[in-house]
Design brief:
mainly alpha, 20 helices, globular
């Protein structure tokens, strides 16, 4: 049920974000998105200094007290203040480096958002400790709705990148207010229990720093070599291509961390949860990622418009790479939950190094396509190393894991083969754009979804309807139907 609430939260908030993006791409230019992507890239990278993992440390700690909570709050505030000062310090050099002083002003404005987030009530960590994820759902939805509405209204009036800045600040302010209205805890600034947190948090903090370098290096390299407009195209293309990962896998991973932490002393239970999560996640993500890659051209032309066609190869490449994200999320969360964050840190350092090298070499040669391939290289390094480190620790063999994913892999293969036969896989849209491209994308999606669903069902029945993702999906649907009818008056 916890995973269900987190997935519902993610689906709701990301749908809000997706609708907002689809509206904003009609109101703003790629250069506007690129400008904000560059600014937030630097902000988020430095903001990692405040993401020291205090909440994760509290979640996995078997016993907590007020000293621990207040220390978590104090460390977060301290890091937030340092981050804001660093942002202010580099704002002018960044504007000079990219020859665009608008970046300086935007970064100064967003530095305030860093401080706002730092003062969030540490008491909301209880939502994860107590597995009351519906409260996180409420926090995220209302803050996202408010931020998105602010962005759209200001963009409609002024058609300026400042609408994106305003949306970020409103979103963070609403979250701050909700953290105090939804939790009765009132934190005090303290560093007394720092030794109890820092051992775990130090690795988490270092890991977050490297993640930020990896995730934001695209914007920096592309912005320097190709300009802000190309940053905007790459950023929006990456968002579309990684939709299955961000909408399904990331929220599932958030729930898995809490689950793994509660089972860290039972190897058998950890193994069962790990294998089950990978099987369920891949059943959902594999067809979605491959499907988005196949229909990228008509989808981009319809959803974003002709001025965003350069993002098509980015969507095609990253959608394929994102299908392995369920494995990397499950591995990383398991290692962190059982107290081995150092392993994840070294893996991320290795994959980040591979990506940076590939970015510098491939982007000047192949533009956005080269940058997307560099991202793919990092994904490949992650999955190989994390599986090698995780599977032996839980006593699961690679063949055993792959056997649980055989049915979705076969069903996806049938889906690809049929669309390829019809000339609908990785081919240009049949229309020039607009509604023609939209109908093309919908038609391809419908054929793919039906083919995958029917094939998966036939395979499941053929092997005797074993426990797995299919039974989980049927059980979930049955629960929803029963609740609907239970609430329907006679």
């Amino acid at each position: 049920m916890g995973a269900g609430w987190i997935i519902a939260w993610r689906v709701a908030t990301r749908n809000i974000g997706l609708v907002s993006t689809l509206i904003l791409v009609r109101l703003l230019d790629p250069s506007d998105f690129g400008l904000i992507a560059l600014a937030t890239g630097f902000i988020t990278s430095i903001d990692a200094l405040s993401a020291i993992g205090a909440q994760d440390a509290l979640v996995r700690s078997p016993k907590v007290d007020r000293e621990l909570y207040d220390t978590g709050f104090g460390l977060t505030v301290l890091r937030g203040a340092v981050t804001a000062l660093l942002v202010v310090a580099i704002a002018w050099p960044v504007g000079w480096f990219f020859s665009d002083m608008r970046l300086t002003v935007v970064m100064l404005a967003l530095a305030a958002g860093t401080l706002i987030t730092a003062f969030e009530n540490i008491g909301i960590v209880d939502f994860r400790r107590d597995l009351t994820f519906h409260k996180e759902f409420q926090m995220q939805v209302w803050s996202r709705v408010t931020g998105a509405m602010t962005t759209i209204v200001i963009a409609a009036i002024w058609q300026s990148y400042w609408s994106l800045v305003a949306g970020v600040l409103v979103y963070r302010t609403v979250r701050l207010v909700q953290s105090y209205t939804m939790s009765a805890y009132r934190p005090k600034f303290s560093l007394a229990g720092w030794r109890r947190i820092i051992g775990f948090s130090l690795w988490t903090w270092a890991q977050t720093l490297v993640y930020q370098v990896r995730d934001r290096s695209d914007s920096i390299v592309i912005g320097r070599l190709l300009g802000a407009e190309k940053v905007g195209e790459f950023t929006v293309g990456m968002e579309l291509g990684l939709l299955p990962s961000t909408e399904l896998v990331e929220p599932l991973g958030r729930a898995l961390f809490s689950g793994f932490a509660s089972l860290q002393h039972s190897a058998a239970a950890l193994a069962n949860m790990f294998v089950g999560a990978v099987a369920v996640g891949l059943t959902l993500v594999l067809p979605a990622g491959v499907g988005i890659s196949m229909i990228a051209d008509p989808m981009v032309r319809f959803a974003l418009g002709e001025k965003w066609v350069a993002a098509v190869p980015v969507v095609q490449i990253l959608a394929l790479g994102g299908v392995t994200s369920i494995m990397t999320q499950a591995c990383a969360n398991l290692l962190n939950a059982v107290g081995r964050p150092s392993v994840t840190f070294y893996v991320v350092v290795t994959s980040t190094s591979a990506k940076l090298a590939a970015l510098v070499v491939l982007t000047p040669l192949y533009g956005l396509t080269g940058a997307a391939v560099a991202q793919l290289a990092a994904i490949f390094v992650d999955i190989v190393l994390l599986l090698a480190m995780t599977l032996p620790s839980v006593g699961v063999g690679i063949l055993s894991l792959l056997s649980r994913t055989l049915r979705p892999a076969l069903a996806t293969t049938v889906m690809v083969a049929l669309l390829w036969w019809f000339g609908m896989a990785w081919t240009p849209s049949v229309g020039a754009g607009g509604w023609d491209a939209g109908m093309d994308a919908i038609g391809r999606s419908a054929i793919g979804a039906v083919t995958y669903g029917v094939t998966l069902a036939v395979l499941w029945v053929a092997v005797g309807r074993p426990d797995g993702a299919e039974r989980f999906a049927l059980s979930l649907c049955g629960t929803i139907v029963r609740r609907v009818f239970a609430r329907t008056p006679a």
